[in-house]
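The methods section describes the discrete structure representation at length, but only in general terms. Each protein is reduced to its one-letter sequence and a matching series of backbone shape codes. I believe one specimen quoted in the main text would settle the matter. An entry of this sort, consisting of the sequence and the corresponding backbone structure tokens, reads as follows.
***
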Amino acid sequence: MQTASSRSLSQWDQFVLDNALGIGVALNFVGFDVIGSRAAAAIAWPGKIVTWLAGATFTIYLMHLPISQFLTAMSPWAVGSWQERTLVYIGTVGFVFLIAHFTERKKYAWRMAIEEIWRQTASIFSAIMAAARAAYIGRHRNAPLGQSTAMSDVRHGYPR
């Protein structure tokens, strides 16, 4: 059974350890800031590699299983052999990064192509709608006010 003095001693130890941990974390932040600014060049090249790899994460997530299953099914070697495993691993990584190169890393080019297609489609649709509107107005322009035209009769279900 613990006494009051031993309980307070353990709380004191916990207090000291918590503060020591806080001081250690603070020194880590300050030290990394000093070291990081001096070692920026050494840290930059791994950052470029990580950024390049991160540019394919969605394709890796989406395509690795179908590609590996396809390569396993098409492999001429026995399932589980080292040749088959090598083919599947290297082929999956290669195909995934090849697909990522033409999809994820070319997002701007795809976006511009789709935007251009959309712009042309919208202008064609706008021209068709303008021609239809002009034809409709031209057909109903000379109708007396209040008199229905054949088109409005059919639309409202009245016999001609």
